[in-house]
UniProtKB/TrEMBL annotation:
PANTHER family: OS05G0353850 PROTEIN (PTHR47723), POLYNUCLEOTIDYL TRANSFERASE, RIBONUCLEASE H-LIKE SUPERFAMILY PROTEIN (PTHR47723:SF19)
InterPro entries membership: RNase_H-like (IPR053151), RNase_H-like_dom_plant (IPR044730), RNaseH-like_sf (IPR012337), RNaseH_domain (IPR002156), RNaseH_sf (IPR036397)
Source species of the chain: Carnegiea gigantea
Boundaries of every RNase H type-1 domain copy: 34-137
Single Gene Ontology MF annotation: nucleic acid binding
Pfam families in UniProt: RVT_3
Protein name per Swiss-Prot or TrEMBL: RNase H type-1 domain-containing protein
Residues annotated as signal peptide: none
Amino acid sequence: MNFQRNMERLIKWVLPPPNWLLSNWMGHHERTWGIMRDHLGGRLRGFAFNSGICSLVKAGLLGLLHGLRITWNSGFKKLLVRMDLEMAIKIILKPVKHYQLYHFIIKECQDLLHKEGWRVKIEHCYHEANKAADRCCLRAFRVFFCHAICVNNKFLGA
């Protein structure tokens, strides 16, 4: 008989390297949210929006796209992305096909990821380590087809 041993693992939020911005993004069937922090853990930006009824993968891809746009437009040059949706990460890192589901979202994400002068790393994280992004989700419950943006710890309607 083979017995597998259960292994306990400490799951926690980890700071990004110095001079990098960390972004945690999550998506749910109707809501998408994210938060960006600097290497000291300070909150710089966040967002939450109603993505409409859709799959988890589409919500995750929309969150990634929205977060990449905000980060690029804010002028940050080094970005570490942590998402709890492995499937979305796998899709983004493979070449996109014209007939692929969510082709336009994937293509736009990939175009942003390959912009010159910008370094982006994408990593998987466990849902339990993504609690800060979860808090942004609470704002998404109140948002109907619009955005709630968090700047310097204050939520603004956008």
